Amino acid sequence: MQVLRAAAEGFARKGIHQTTMQEICEASGMSAGALYRYFPTKESIIVAFAEEERAEAANLFSHLNSAPNIVSALSEIVPELINGLTDENYGRLTLEVAAEAARNPAVKAAFDKNETELCERLSAALLRGQTAGHVDPELDRDSVVFLLIALLDGIAGRAAFSPEFDKRRLARGVDHLLRSMLTAPMVAIDKRSK
Asked: Of the chain's two ends, which shows fewer C-beta atoms within 10 Å, N or C?
């Protein structure tokens, strides 16, 4: 929706509290009456961001759940994830929304709901991988889920301050890290013992 894009650009550029609803109206080409009908406050816009994020996560897990190997499926989407996470505006918006969530209970509740669902789905995907033998059975899923989310959040945050880097190299590094952390160790077969 054009309003959400306009708000995201304004929030990333100027900050949530410095961006006015009038500026969002102008940038989206929507009248104030129409905007306020859908989004009566900036808080309602941010909650809509949470809903968009939730839909994107559902698409991601649809891909992961249909894949026979969770590690390979994650590896396949790393370049796309890195592209999105390293967008400078996305990084700035992420930091703005995180700051707002720290002081606004309604915003925090919307993103906490997303975080809970993300953690549960990621943990379930890792468990499926462990059951199938692709993910290290000794892996502490809760810790790994925390680390993966922290890694992705950190990449978005760093992109806001370090926009000049090679995204392909970063994607290769993240892919290597994921494979190293998740992949089940190969059991060596000593052919001489047969």
From this structure: C
CATH code for 46-184? Answer: 1.10.357.10
**φ, ψ dihedrals at 54, nearest 5°:** -65, -40
Q: What confidence tier does 194 reach under pLDDT thresholds 50, 70, 90? A: very low
Its pTM stands at 0.84
C-alpha–C-alpha distance, residues 131 and 136, integer Å: 9
Name the β-bridge partners of 135: 183
Residues with Cβ < 8 Å from 94, sequence gap 6 or more?
153, 156, 157, 160
Domain boundaries along the sequence of the chain: 1-40, 46-184
CATH architecture of 1-40: Orthogonal Bundle (1.10)
Q: Which of 151, 158, 132, 133 is closest to 78 using CA atoms?
A: 151
Structure confidence at residue 64 (pLDDT): 87
pLDDT at residue 110, rounded to an integer: 93
